[in-house]
Amino acid sequence: MQESVKTKRLVVRLATAAVLMFGFGFALVPLYEVFCDITGLNGKNFTQGPAAITAVDRSRTVKVQFVTANPAEMPWEFRPTERTMRVFPGEDKVTAFYAKNPTPEWMVAQAVPSVTPSEAAQYLHKVNCFCFDRQPLDAGADTEMPLVFVVDPELPKHITTITLSYALYDLTDNQKVTQSSHDNDKGRASL
After folding, report:
1. Mean pLDDT in each 10-residue stretch from start to end of the chain (191 residues)?
2. What is the three-class DSSP state of 54?
3. Residue 165 to residue 147: CA distance in whole angstroms
4. Of 111, 115, 184, 181, residue with least CA distance to 152
5. 64 burial class (0-12, 13-18, 19+ CB within 10 angstroms)?
6. Neighbouring residues of 140: CB distance < 8 A, sequence distance ≥ 6
7. What does DSSP assign to residue 171?
8. pTM to 2 decimals?
9. Helix ranges, the chain (H)
10. What Å distances lie between residue 76 and 71, 72, 98, 111, 174, CA to CA?
11. Nearby residues of 160 by Cβ (< 8 Å), 6 or more positions away
């Protein structure tokens, strides 16, 4: 009898641990995103600081480089329309990135930004960025995705070049699951 109680306690503890680990796995990504937003780590600083910027610093320019990368499983063409740009700190700048889905299937992608040097991340403000949203593309379709940004005039003087890099990830399967769940919910609601 004593052995049976110990076994049940162990099973309950193991099941609880498994549930907690599963929940932690889901919570880890949003927690990491919040941490990166707050610290600017990995270039993830989406604050819209330009509203507070009142003057353009025309005494210097900063070179902004644009770089793209695709993981091996992402078949899209993805590149900046401009590789480099000289900007005055404080001025709004507009550029775009080209994407093409060469596959015979509809796909959804998400771009993840990174800023180098990491110290510059808190000074590069993305006012409007294609990276804020998922990007669906039909089979064979292409698009130009806009980026509006501003380099904060408070950028330390020793930083003369900033590299803004984007990695493009395939979220098609995730989107299909979300869409399927949404469609099922709508079907249940109409019953």
Report:
1. 79 79 62 56 48 79 96 94 96 96 96 94 94 94 96 96 96 62 43 42
2. coil
3. 12
4. 115
5. buried
6. 101, 102, 103, 104
7. -
8. 0.66
9. 2-39, 172-190
10. 10, 10, 10, 12, 17
11. 62, 63
Residue 46 lies in a domain: yes
CA end-to-end distance (rounded Å), the chain: 50
Residue 29: φ, ψ to 5°: -65, -50
- Give the number of domains in the chain: 1
Strands 142-151 vs 92-100: parallel, antiparallel or unpaired: antiparallel
Residue 100 buriedness (CB in 10 A; 0-12 / 13-18 / 19+)? middle
Q: Would you say residue 63 lies in a domain?
A: yes
Is the residue at 92 inside a domain? yes
For the domain that residue 118 is a member of, what is the CATH number?
A: 2.60.370.10
Range of the domain at 119: 41-172
Query: At a CB cut-off of 8 Å and minimum separation 6, what does 86 contact?
Result: 61, 62, 63, 64
Amino acid at site 153: P
Task: Note the residue count of the chain.
Answer: 191
How far CA 191 is from CA of 38, 180, 184, 188, in Å, comes to: 44, 17, 11, 5
